[in-house]
């Protein structure tokens, strides 16, 4: 191998490593956002209305229905992050699901 081939391989590996770090940071931010949502809606009345973004659709649910789903999503993001850490050599990428929650006014 000549120096140029080695330099190209190094640059490609460095670029891939930067992509992993970016994805890990993104997943950590999503887990943090899920924690904020959980902390905000957990003390609320379970029958209170809240709105959850599923894909591009805003769906009306209750806190009782949404809280377990937010916990599942958070746990899934943690598993995705672990899989990312373990598959650095494999190059596999998984995407977290972006979903938001909006709590409606108390009635």
From TrEMBL:
Q: Name one Pfam family in it.
A: Prefoldin_2
Q: Where is this region: Disordered?
A: 78-107
Q: Name one GO cellular component term.
A: prefoldin complex
Query: Which Gene3D superfamilies does its entry note?
Result: 1.10.287.370
Q: Which GO terms describe its molecular function?
A: unfolded protein binding
**What UniProt keywords apply to this chain's record, in alphabetical order?**
Chaperone
One record GO biological process: protein folding
Signal peptide feature range? none
Please note every region of biased composition (Basic and acidic residues). 78-96
**The protein, known as:** Prefoldin subunit 2
Lineage top rank: taxon: Eukaryota
Record keywords: Chaperone included?
yes
What family is it from? Belongs to the prefoldin subunit beta family.
Alphabetical list of InterPro entries matching this protein: PFD2 (IPR027235), PFD_beta-like (IPR002777), Prefoldin (IPR009053)
